[in-house]
Specification:
With about 120 residues, the protein is mainly α. It contains eight helices and no strands. It is found in: Membrane.
């Protein structure tokens, strides 16, 4: 398995790919495949986070926070209409950072779950 496999993840950016290569550099080919299979199911595409943030401007606010397993923030966004749209706009601007922080945690969690 080559490191090119990480490039096939939807919406992956250079920073995330380099971080994943560094995380998995000591893994065997089989372990990398197992890691990639688990991580790809748990990872969030940054564009989905952006779309959900934009949905919060016209419909239900806080969906992006629920997707990122930030349940309390999601409820708070829902009850305050996305902090009167300010929080929703900030999330739409920072969607890559939100997705990257979530995906980083999920990568570490996936590696720990596999015992790597």
């Amino acid at each position: 398995m080559s490191d090119f496999s990480f490039a096939m993840l939807p919406g992956i950016e250079q920073e995330e790919m380099l971080w994943l290569q560094e995380l998995t550099k000591s893994y065997s080919s089989e372990n990398k495949q197992r890691f990639l299979a688990l991580y790809s199911t748990r990872r969030k595409d940054p564009q989905i986070i952006l779309i959900c943030s934009l949905v919060g401007l016209v419909a239900v606010a806080g969906v992006q926070r629920f997707l990122l397993n930030q349940i309390l923030m999601g409820i708070l966004y829902f009850m305050t209409v996305g902090f009167c749209f300010v929080g929703t706009i900030l999330d739409a601007i920072n969607y890559r950072k939100l997705a990257w922080e979530y995906n980083k945690k999920e990568a570490i969690s996936s590696a720990a779950l596999l015992g790597l």
